[in-house]
Design goal:
The complex is a heterodimer. Chain A is about 25% helix and about 30% strand. By secondary structure, chain A is an alpha+beta fold. The chains are: A alpha+beta, B mainly alpha.
Chain lengths: ~200, ~375
C-alpha cells in the first residue's frame, strides 16, 4: 500500500497529480467562463426568439380535404399527404405524420356499422399472417354519427404494426378510417386522430 | 514543490471560476433532470429500474474502454466525472430546451412533411453538438494541464458524449414504455435498437470527433494558428455531419425492408464516421507513444527504468501479460505493487514533460517513488 511520503502518487484509479509550470495560463479568470455562459444562454435566447418571431406563420394550412361522396376531412396540425407512399385509390385520402399513416375511404354502402367492420377486418386479415382484434366499441364521429372503433395488431414476418380501425355509415355512405403505426406509436397521435374524426363532415 | 505543482484534484478544481460555473449549472440542470427521473420512477418503477440496469451494464464497460484509450496518461477521475455530468445533465438540459424551440421555429417556416423528415437532422446536431462542445471548453478552463495531447480531447469528448447518450436513452426507454402500456417490452426493444444495434454510432462518436479537434487546437501550439483552427473546424463539421447523417431520413426505404436491411442501413450511416474516429484514435495513440519514448529517453537504462521494462511499458498488451505473469508466480499482492510501479514509471514521462531540468526536485522525488516500489516488489520474493 501507499507510504505516507508517496502520497498522492499511488493513485490506482484515475491519474495522479502532475506538475505543470505555474504562470499566466493557470491563473484563475472569470473571462472564459463568462463567455461560455454568454454563448449557452445567448443561443437559448436566440432559438426562443426565432420560435417566437415565426409563430404567426403557418405554412401548413389545415384545409378541409374532400375524400369523396360528400365526406370531408380536415387534417390535424402537422399531418400531410401520404399519397406517394400509400396508394389508396379513388374516394380516399392518405395522410402521415411522424411515421404514422392514416387513410380515409368513402364508398356507397347499404349495410350496418357491424357488417362494414367485419368486411374491413376481413381485408386486414389478408394483409397479415395473423391479427389480434380488441372488442369493438361504440363511438361517434362527425359530431354525432354513431361509429364502431377497434384496435387491431397485425403480425407478419417483417413487421407487426398496430392499427386503429373506425367505421361509420350515414345516408348510404360508409366511411372507413384506418391508422397504422409501428407498435407503441399510435398513442402519440391519438389526439390528432380523434380530432380529425370529430371534425369530419359526412352526408346527413 | 511550491510553484510548479498543480493538479486536477477536486480541491484544485475548486479554485477555478470555470468549476463554479460548472457547479452552478449542474445544480440547476440537475433539478430538471432529477425531477424527470423521479417522474419516470413514479410512473414506471420496474421499467425505469430495468433501464438503469441495462444502461449501466453497457455504459460502464464503454467508459472503461474509453478511459483506457490513453494508457500512458489516464485522465483524473474528477475530470471524467465532470465530463459525464456535463454531457448527461447540463448539455442534455440545454440541448433539450433549444431543440424544442428550434423545432417550433421550423414548424412555422417549413412544410410539415419536410419538418417531419428533416427536423431531427437539422435541429439536434446544431444544438446538441454546441452544448456538448462547450463542455470541452469549460473543462479546459478548469484544468488546462489535463489537455496536453489530442488523446485527452478524444477521451473527454467521448465521455461527454457517453453521459449524454446514457441519459437520453433513459428518456427514449421511458417514452417507449409509456407508448407500449408500461411493460418492459418497450425498454428491451429500445435498448436493442439504441444500444445494441446503434450504440457505437451515437454521441460518443460525435463528441469524440469534436474533442479531437478541440484538443488539437489547444495542444498543438507549435503549428500555425490557421492550421490548428482548420483542424478544429474540420472536426467540428465532422461531428455535426455524423450527427446529421445519423438523424437524416436517408436510407429509410432500405430500413423498411427487413431486419437485415435495417442493420445494413445503420452500418452504412454510422460506420464511415466510426472508422474515421478509430483512425484518429490510432493517430493520437501513436503520437502518445512517440512522445512517451522521447520523454523517457533520459530515464531508460537508469535504476528507475530498464530497457526491458521500457519495452513492456510501451505496450498495453505486454503490460497486461506481465501483470498476469506476476500474479501467477508471486501472487495478487505482487501484481498490485507491480501495477503501481508501472504507473509510477510511466509518470516519469509526465514529470519529464513538465519540468525544466533532469534534476528537478519533482522528478527526483518521482524516481525515489519508483525505487521504493521496486524495493517493495523485490521484498515480495
Amino acid at each position: 500500500m501507499n507510504q505516507p511520503g508517496d502520497s498522492p502518487i499511488y493513485v490506482v484509479r484515475g491519474a495522479p497529480p502532475r506538475p505543470v509550470p505555474g504562470g499566466r495560463s493557470t491563473r484563475p479568470s472569470w473571462r472564459g467562463p463568462l463567455i461560455v455562459v454568454a454563448i449557452m444562454f445567448g443561443w437559448m435566447v436566440f432559438t426562443f426568439a426565432l420560435a417566437a418571431i415565426a409563430a404567426p406563420n403557418d405554412p401548413n394550412v389545415e384545409a378541409p380535404t374532400p375524400v369523396g361522396l360528400g365526406v370531408v376531412v380536415t387534417p390535424a396540425d402537422g399531418w400531410y399527404d401520404a399519397g406517394d407512399d400509400w396508394e389508396v385509390g379513388p374516394d380516399a385520402i392518405a395522410l402521415q405524420k411522424s411515421g404514422v399513416y392514416l387513410a380515409f375511404w368513402a364508398s356507397s354502402y347499404g349495410g350496418t356499422n357491424e357488417s362494414l367492420l367485419d368486411e374491413q377486418l376481413g381485408y386486414l386479415k389478408e394483409d397479415f399472417d395473423s391479427i389480434r382484434v380488441l372488442p369493438a366499441s361504440s363511438t361517434t364521429v362527425a359530431g354525432d354519427v354513431v361509429a364502431l372503433a377497434t384496435l387491431v395488431t397485425g403480425v407478419s414476418e417483417y413487421w407487426s404494426p398496430e392499427n386503429e380501425l373506425v367505421v361509420a355509415v350515414s345516408r348510404g355512405v360508409g366511411v372507413v378510417m384506418l391508422a397504422t403505426a409501428p407498435s407503441g406509436q399510435l398513442a402519440r397521435v391519438q389526439g390528432d386522430i380523434d380530432a380529425m374524426l370529430d371534425d369530419m363532415v359526412m352526408p346527413r | 514543490m511550491k510553484g510548479y505543482v498543480t493538479t486536477a484534484a477536486p480541491s484544485r478544481l475548486a479554485r477555478q471560476p470555470a468549476f463554479w460555473l460548472f457547479a452552478a449549472l449542474l445544480v440547476n440542470c440537475f433539478l430538471l433532470v432529477g425531477l424527470e427521473q423521479v417522474s419516470y420512477l413514479a410512473a414506471y418503477p420496474g421499467a425505469w429500474l430495468l433501464s438503469i440496469i441495462l444502461l449501466a451494464a453497457t455504459a460502464i464497460p464503454a467508459a472503461l474502454i474509453i478511459y483506457r484509450f490513453d494508457h500512458f496518461e489516464p485522465e483524473p477521475a474528477s475530470m471524467i466525472a465532470v465530463a459525464l455530468l456535463w454531457g448527461g445533465v447540463i448539455a442534455l438540459t440545454f440541448g433539450g430546451i433549444t431543440n424544442s424551440w428550434f423545432l417550433t421555429f421550423l414548424q412555422h417556416v417549413m412544410p410539415a412533411g419536410q419538418v417531419d423528415a428533416w427536423g431531427a437532422a437539422i435541429v439536434a446536431p446544431i444544438n446538441e453538438e454546441l452544448y456538448k462542445g462547450l463542455g470541452l471548453v469549460i473543462m479546459y478552463l478548469m484544468a488546462r494541464s489535463e489537455f496536453d495531447s489530442v488523446m485527452d480531447g478524444l477521451v473527454y469528448g467521448a465521455m461527454i458524449g457517453l453521459g449524454f447518450q446514457v441519459m437520453e436513452n433513459v428518456q427514449y426507454f421511458m417514452l417507449a414504455t409509456d407508448e407500449s402500456g408500461g411493460g418492459p417490452g418497450g425498454v428491451v426493444g429500445m435498448f436493442f435498437l439504441r444500444v445494441v444495434v446503434s450504440g457505437l454510432y451515437s454521441h460518443m462518436l460525435f463528441t469524440g470527433l469534436m474533442g479531437f479537434g478541440f484538443a488539437y487546437y489547444v495542444t498543438q501550439r507549435g503549428r500555425a494558428a490557421a492550421h490548428r483552427v482548420g483542424v478544429f473546424v474540420l472536426c467540428g463539421v465532422l461531428a455535426w455531419a455524423a450527427h446529421f447523417v445519423w438523424n437524416s431520413p436517408w436510407l429509410e426505404r432500405l430500413m423498411s425492408q427487413g431486419s437485415g436491411a435495417f442493420v445494413m442501413a445503420l452500418i452504412i450511416k454510422g460506420l464511415p464516421f466510426l472508422v474515421l474516429l478509430v483512425l484518429m484514435a490510432v493517430f493520437a495513440r501513436r503520437r502518445e507513444s512517440q512522445a512517451f519514448a522521447r520523454l523517457m529517453a533520459g530515464e531508460v537504462g537508469s535504476d528507475a527504468v530498464s530497457m526491458e521494462e521500457f519495452e513492456i511499458l510501451r505496450s498495453g498488451r505486454k503490460r497486461r501479460a506481465t501483470l498476469r505473469s506476476m500474479k501467477q508466480t508471486k501472487g495478487p499482492a505482487a501484481r498490485t505493487v507491480l501495477k503501481q510501479l508501472m504507473r509510477a514509471q510511466m509518470n516519469l514521462a509526465l514529470f519529464q514533460s513538465k519540468v525544466a531540468s533532469d534534476d528537478d526536485p519533482a522528478l527526483e522525488a518521482q524516481r525515489d517513488v519508483v525505487r521504493r516500489l521496486r524495493a517493495r516488489l523485490a521484498a515480495l520474493g
